[in-house]
Amino acid sequence: MDSVQREYWVKVAFGCVYHGIMDDGSEVAIKLLTREEQSGDREFIGEVGMLSRLHHRNLVKLLGICIEGRTRCLVYELVRNGSVESHLHGADKNKGNLSWDSRMKIALGAARALAYLHEDSNPRVIHRDFKASNVLLEDNFTPKVSDFGLAREASDASHHISTRVMGTFGDACLAWTQQCEVVRLLLFNANIYFARAETSSMDT
Ligand SMILES: Nc1ncnc2c1ncn2[C@@H]1O[C@H](COP(=O)(O)OP(=O)(O)O)[C@@H](O)[C@H]1O
Ligand SMILES: [Mg+2]
What we know:
This protein is α+β, with helices and mostly antiparallel strands. The protein folds into two domains: 5-77, Phosphorylase Kinase, domain 1, CATH 3.30.200.20; 84-203, Transferase(Phosphotransferase), domain 1. Helix content is 36%, strand content 25%. β7 and β8 (143-145) form a beta hairpin. α3 (100-120) runs antiparallel to α4. The protein is globular. It starts with a strand and ends with a helix. The structure holds adenosine-5'-diphosphate and magnesium ion. Magnesium ion binds next to loops. GO terms for molecular function: ATP binding; protein serine/threonine kinase activity. This is non-specific serine/threonine protein kinase. Residues 3-204 form the Protein kinase domain. It is an enzyme of class 2 (transferase). Its EC number is 2.7.11.1.
């Protein structure tokens, strides 16, 4: 990696996210984990193991990892247009309202990402932290679900749930968590449409 631009960073639960430039000039996002206790390591291992086996156009792509001493980095494709949260309620709110088409694209993309995680991926996965701030946006508003630090595997063949990754919750609890995630998707979509109705009525 050639350089990491320190002026472009976001503080996260276990460290910071930097904007980096690779030797070939490509831009990446680098999540630098600084916390050295067990939970930071567990988050790192969980996120790496999970992401390396998942491939979907609505999931953020993990390009690589770096471990040096006690420092751990996750290198992601750069998703440069903020998050759904920042566009609806935060720093990007004043950039201009999201069009109906963009909002539809976000709702569909997020639903496809969760359907892939719950039904089609191998292993099946429950994200467990699905929310507007963890849905990043490309310039054309293609959504990318990110931040897999709390994710857990669901099982392969049926809706039976295993606890192979972190292993502290029982089957029923994880099945319930999966159902809750579907409800969170509904709330996410309601948030998108409600914000739209609000801005539309102000526009007219
Ligand atoms: N791939 C990425 N591209 C661009 N920005 C990112 C990327 N990943 C994270 N970020 C930025 O860092 C913030 C926090 O990242 P996240 O992985 O959600 O950390 P946390 O565990 O603190 O929630 C995001 O809201 C976003 O602003
Ligand atoms: Mg997050």
